[in-house]
Known about the structure:
single chain, 147 residues, alpha+beta, seven-stranded antiparallel sheet
Amino acid sequence: MAQVEAVTERIIAAQPDDVFDALADYSGTRESVLTEHFSEYEVREGGDGEGTLVHWKLQATSKRVRDCLMEVTEPTDGELVERDRNSSMVSTWRVTPAGEGKARVVVTTVWNGAGGIGGFFEKTFAPKGLGRIYGAVLDKLAQRLES
Length: 147
């Protein structure tokens, strides 16, 4: 079983603190910037960063739906970590300054992939698909914060 990693990055024309606060707002902003790939979104505990427990289904392909129950922590300033209770998947969102009035957002998702030929295809194609999904989420976040 090999580890699979998907990384997506965007520069958003907004203050880093505002970007981080929007990402950490699971009971408001976060749901509004999700794409059609996410369904059954529900905040089960908390709702603002550390201590949040949030559920969604992620449909990466027409046949692949992942039921996610994410525990949120904030290990350092500008960082949200979402650990899935239902799998090995971990997504880390990092927000850092990127010049005057801009923020760099990097989301890195890792999980234990399948073995064999299925694992080869997963490691080859899944990061691109997840990158597109999170790229669209970051685009929607940018549209919301930059307007």
